[in-house]
Amino acid sequence: MSNIKENNYTNNKIVIIDDDQDILDLLVNFFKTRGASVTTFMSAEEALKKLAENPSDCCDVILTDLQLPKMNGIDFTIAAKQQKIEAPIIVMTVTRSAEIAMRAIRNGAYDFIVKPIHFPQLQVSVERAFHLNNLKQDVSSLRSLVKGQSNLASSYDGLIGRSPSFVKALDLAKRVAKSNANVFVNGESGTGKELVAKFIHNNSTRKKGPFVAINCSAIPENLLESELFGHAKGSFTGAIDKKIGLFEEAEGGTIFLDEIGDLTLALQAKILRVLQEKKIKRVGENQDRPINARVISATHKNLHDEVAKGNFREDLFFRLNVIPIYVPPLRERKEDILPLAEFFLKKFSALNESPARRFSREALQVLFDKKWQGNVRELENTIERAVVLCSTYDIQPDDLEIESPYTSATPTAEQRSNDDFLLDDEGHLLTLHNLTQKYIEYALEKNNGAKDRTAKELGIDRKTLYRRLQLDH
Fold this sequence. Notes:
The protein is α/β, with parallel strands linked by helices and 473 residues long. Helix content is 48%, strand content 13%. The chain folds into 4 domains: 13-143, 3-Layer(aba) Sandwich (Rossmann fold), CATH 3.40.50.2300; 164-328, P-loop containing nucleotide triphosphate hydrolases (Rossmann fold, 3-Layer(aba) Sandwich), CATH 3.40.50.300; 331-400, Helicase, Ruva Protein, domain 3 (Orthogonal Bundle), CATH 1.10.8; 413-472, Arc Repressor Mutant, subunit A, CATH 1.10.10. It has helices at residues 21-32, 44-51, 73-82, 98-106, 119-153, 164-177, 193-202, 221-229, 246-249, 265-277, 303-309, 314-320, 337-352, 361-369, 375-389, 397-400, 413-422, 432-446, 451-458, 462-472; strands at 13-17, 37-41, 61-65, 89-93, 111-114, 183-186, 211-215, 230-231, 243-244, 254-258, 279-281, 288-290, 294-299, 323-326, 358-359, 394-395.
């Protein structure tokens, strides 16, 4: 998507090379009135020297005259390509020779414009060049993202962060990766627990084996056992064929049990048996099958509290919690917000062909001030939405505004008022009888003691109202 809208060239940089000052003045005026930043040179040698200092981001388009002193426009084009100057080059000349035009194109020029300049034609050519340049940048961004993730795979597996707490967690993960010990990853939803599990797998001796992940809270209880252990043909209604479970699918690799804190006690007992005996039994079978899969588990819950409440088996917890790794929430690692946000910006700008390339200072402040209850996942979603909605070079605070799906932990005045009405002096819920009496008293007070009006508004007759009031006294 081009960032040219209604001939507005704001944020576009144009370089013009011509030894005719009148032509330079004419072109500069044309482009500057449309918001472009324009740099001029009267010799190709001077322009080449300056542009070569930053070849990948020197400008968005180059206009060069064909007939220049010493180095002509075609020679400049050849030299620019050798210097890795990536901006599209448009050659201008007084001749209409097709041979010269083809020669310019063959040597790397993007387009060819005949003098005297027909400005509507120039405008079309320049805007097409802008669009081409944007596409090249998007492709380059995608390639760098892929390359960056590939490079990170040897150490961080796409995990981005530089805060001490996050680096400490990754360092521990890297140290335990070579072992076969069970690892327990704890952290809030959206912090990247599965990415940490993949990081451990990819740095382990099992990296050539499969990485199998399952969210234990996302599958109904009556299907979860079959998913984990498999089932025999005809073992239950709908089991029209045998099924291999995820523990068997993870043979020689790693199985990641996400949200293991949501397992029922019955399934917890079966997981414990797998960890102890390294064997599974498919649903509907009596045959034990040996398995060889490393178990990494995760949850957002505090399993110490769940054990104390009787919701989680203590023996299973100790089996899983051999190597505990805590992934801190994003609000505790503010240093990671900017690199994460910039990564997501590049990613989604390229994928959506968006003009957005950076955050304004005010937008950055919004990112730093936000609590991010949804952690990295919420940040990623917010940046994606901002990129899609943004129509300019800079992302502004308005682009980041989104109604949070998370409610504040601090009750509002209205919530507190409702709670006061529903609770007794000790903070306990009122009984239905007491709540009814309290509501009648409230209605009577609201109507200044007028019993007829109160009874009518409550939808009861006067006798019932009197009886209720007498019960209260």
